[in-house]
Amino acid sequence: MERGQASAQNLESIARTLRRHIISMTAAAGSGHPGGSLSAVEIVTALFFRILRHRPSDPEWAGRDRFIMSKAHAAPLLYAALAETGYLPVAELCTLRKLDSRLQGHPDRRCTPGVEMTCGSLGQGLSYGIGVALTARLNSLDYRVYVLLGDGECDEGQVWEAAMSAAHFKVDNLVATIDHNKLQLDGWNREVMNLEPLADKWRAFGWHVVEVDGHDFPQVLAAFEEARQVKGQPTAIIAHTVKGKGVSFMENKVDFHGKAPTPEEADRALQELT
Amino acid sequence: MAELSSTREAYGKTLLALGKENPDIVVLDADLSKSTMTHLFAREFPQRFFDCGIAEQNMIGIAAGLAASGKIAFASTFAVFATARCYDQLRVCVAQPHLNVKVVATHGGITVGEDGASHHAIEDLALACALPGFTVIVPADGVETGEVIRAVADTPGPFYVRLGRPKVPEVLSRPYRFVIGRAVTLRQGFDATIIAIGTMVSRALEAAGSLAQEGIDCRVLNMSTVKPLDTDAIVQAARETGAIVTAEEHLEHGGLGSRVAQVAGQNQAVPLSFVAIKDVFAKSGTPEQLLERHGLTAAAIEKAVVSAVGRKKQ
């Protein structure tokens, strides 16, 4: 596929499928990060099924848009999207985190087709995205680069080094989406390390900023389309989300940041996601 | 007296030449381009030069992105900042994905001089060697630097190249062909071997000259590739000369000496001595004063050779 054509209704259904994969994969692995995977499902679904120009049968295609999962603990979400778009067999998802699996705990570009960058130490994906975006300019290619960051990840100083330089280099083929679920491992962002006013910060660093409800497909899609029209500066999409979204007992529960559901919890979650 | 040559000038000029030959060469710097000499490339190819400001972590990330999308990315700053300041970025974004990023660091070692301990890279080789898949090179002079930079550009994968601040005596003569991972014998001998890198190579030759007058016949190896080491040359030196002295402008632990000792210990155990910085930081001073203070002199190498030779089994 080049750009996907999924309808709004289809997107909702795909999102539910990805959520089911996230639950099943982390439950089977016995570890992993379901909370921050679930919060970004609509963002990643919109990208992989509507926004990205890509060819799952040819992951190295030079003209492809790039998606970089900088909040790399959301690996289960990335793998679920790669499987549902055809980069990987869906059956392979249950090998997550197992010895010799292509699905590493955090994404590794040398292991998995469709994984653009090795990440896992937070704060590094945006810099990498700038480099990839600059190559498009140097080679006169028109691909776009989409980086997904966590809000807690924005504690890292390198994010702001990258933010400053992306605006300085005027990389307008770069979009940073911040999955703003307001929670990080030690608690609420505002208690651990206050990020607000987050949108103003990105604006002050020279970015075009769009704020959306990160679970509302029309809003998310419109933001990516708006970013496409912005020239001379990069775009930041602040996506307001809910950690653990879609599973009642996981929503806004920091415990499920880095803890897999038990088999019983997974059953309950999957019942909710039918 | 040998002619003096500057490793960073050779770097800047070679980069400029490579830029003309290969449009895929890109260069990044962190606000030190006039010192690292990348400004020569920047002036000619502004579109392919990215000054990242004083932000080394971001520079390495951008270099990784450029490399992953097909560019040959040279990233330069001072050796202290090129390793310790952005170590996690080198680890996760360059080493783990094994990308074509060439970290060329200038101002290695204590011959940076007056700027003091914060600016003396004395552990950079240990750090770079600890990154899986990295090749680590320390050219001995300007002649070798030019050849090293060409070899590095031609060879895929991550590299760390350490250059110095001051000019050094030219020890290699043109035409010189550098081969990654191969030591060069600068002087043949059979009583002991001095294995040296960078600024210590000329001092090793000086020491060997003096020792010859005392009847000790030293082999001198320029081990410019610190990783992977030329294991064959080390084992041969151990077998044929029976004693090895290493000389480096780096901490004693984790650098050339440690690595050579590992090879010798596993293959052919012989008496060893290490001319290197002990477990301390240096202070401000002229390069010559600091080398003297930390025992990185021809005289210190001579003493180390005499000690190692004295420990040979009779």
Give me the side-by-side strand order of the main sheet of chain B: 3-2-4-5-7-6-12
CATH architect. name of chain A: 3-Layer(aba) Sandwich
> What percentage of residues of chain B falls in helices of 4 or more residues?
40-55%
Percentage of residues in DSSP E strands of chain A: 5-15%
Distance between the termini of chain A: 27 Å
Largest sheet of chain B: 7 strands, mixed
Overall shape of chain B: it is: globular
Q: Tell me which CATH architecture of the largest domain in chain B applies here.
A: 3-Layer(aba) Sandwich
User: Assembly state here?
Assistant: heterodimer
**Radius of gyration of chain B, in angstroms, nearest whole number:** 19 Å
Please name the CATH topology of chain A: Rossmann fold
Structural class of chain A: alpha/beta
The low-confidence parts of chain B are none
Q: Within the largest sheet of chain A, what's the order of strands?
A: 1-2-3-7-6
**Overall number of domains of chain A:** 1
Largest sheet of chain A: 5 strands, parallel
Overview of this structure, please?
The complex is a heterodimer of chains A (274) and B (314). With 274 residues, chain A is of the alpha/beta class. Chain A has one domain: Rossmann fold (3-Layer(aba) Sandwich), CATH 3.40.50.970. Chain A has 10 helices and 7 strands. A 5-stranded parallel sheet of chain A has the order 1-2-3-7-6, with helices on both faces. A two-stranded antiparallel sheet of chain A has the order 4-5. Chain A is globular and about 50 Å long. In chain A, 55% of the residues are buried. With 314 residues, chain B is α/β, with parallel strands linked by helices. Chain B folds into 2 domains: 4-169, Thiamin diphosphate (ThDP)-binding fold, Pyr/PP domains (Rossmann fold, 3-Layer(aba) Sandwich), CATH 3.40.50.970; 184-309, Rossmann fold, CATH 3.40.50.920. Chain B contains 13 helices and 14 strands. A 7-stranded mixed sheet of chain B has the order 3-2-4-5-7-6-12, sandwiched between helices. Chain B has a 5-stranded mixed sheet with strand order 9-11-10-13-14, sandwiched between helices. A two-stranded antiparallel ribbon of chain B has the order 1-8. Chain B is globular, with a radius of gyration of 19 Å. Chain A binds chain B through residues 108-110, 116-121, 123-136, 138-139, 157-158, 161-162, 164-165, 168-169, and chain B through 26, 47-48, 50, 52-53, 55, 57-71, 73, 88-89, 91-93, 96-98.
